[in-house]
Each structure stands twice: as C-alpha cells, then as structure tokens.
C-alpha cells in the first residue's frame, strides 16, 4: 500500500485572454436577449404587432419573454452555462423555424443561428472542459 494521497482532480485551465474573449462573445448576445425579453414582458405595441404579424397569439409574448430572459441568465451563470446554452439553442431553433414558416429573408433566418454560434463559441472559449469534449482538430 502506498501512503501517497491520490492525485488531486485538476480542472483544465483557460487563459485569461480566452476567458475574456469567451465572456465578451457570449455576454453580448445574452444581454441583447435579456433586454429583448424584458421589453417583451412589458408588451409594447410594436412587440404585439410584430408577434401577431408572425401569426402568433398575443398571449405568447410574456411567456416567450420570460423564457428568453431565464435561458440567458442561466447561460451567464458559470455553473448553469451549459444548460443555458442548450436551452438557448432550442429557443433560437424555434426562432429560425418561425422565420422559415413566415417566409422571411435569409438575414432573419440566419440571425438566430449567428446568436447560437456566438453563445457556443463564447462558452467554448471560456470553458476548457467544453474544449476538451469538442476538440477542434488542426
């Protein structure tokens, strides 16, 4: 028997530059989503008009705003960031589907995809554990 203690579990390290880049890339769309969701909860006329033009009922505005804010806040909390990213991916996928069904242009369809990519890229850069399970090969 060895009297040496078992090796301490080491967490993969992330450089400060990667952490900052990851936080900036992820926080910008998250803050946009939080502001957008908060505005939606107040149901100003332009939100009601836009929602009904997309073929949705006015009754979905507040729940969608709450979901948007909740998922974005989960993303910004390091402990729940992966859950937040997964939920935001689903939310943004629904946004893409809505724009496709509405017959909107490419920009409207790709904007949620860009946000999803920024969320995951931000998480990828700031968390070495994500980089370990999703390696980019050279």
Question: Which terms summarize this structure?
Answer:
138 residues; mainly alpha; elongated
Give a brief rundown of this model.
With 138 residues, the chain is mainly alpha-helical. The chain has one domain. 73% of the residues lie in helices and 0% in strands.
Describe it.
- With 138 residues, the chain is mainly α.
- The protein has one domain (16-132).
- It is built from 6 helices and no strands.
- Helix 4 runs antiparallel to helix 5.
- The longest helix has 27 residues, at 16-42.
Please tell me how large the radius of gyration is: 19 Å
Topology as a string of helices (H) and strands (E): HHHHHH
Cα(first) to Cα(last) distance is: 43 Å
Principal-axis shape: elongated
Number of strands: 0
Poorly predicted parts:
none
Beta-strand fraction estimate:
under 5%
Helix fraction, binned, reads over 70%
For the report, how would you describe the main beta sheet? none
Q: What is the total number of structural domains?
A: 1
Number of helical elements: 6
Mean pLDDT: 92
Secondary-structure-derived class: mainly alpha
Give the arrangement of secondary structure elements.
Blueprint: H1 16-42, H2 45-53, H3 61-76, H4 81-102, H5 106-126, H6 128-133
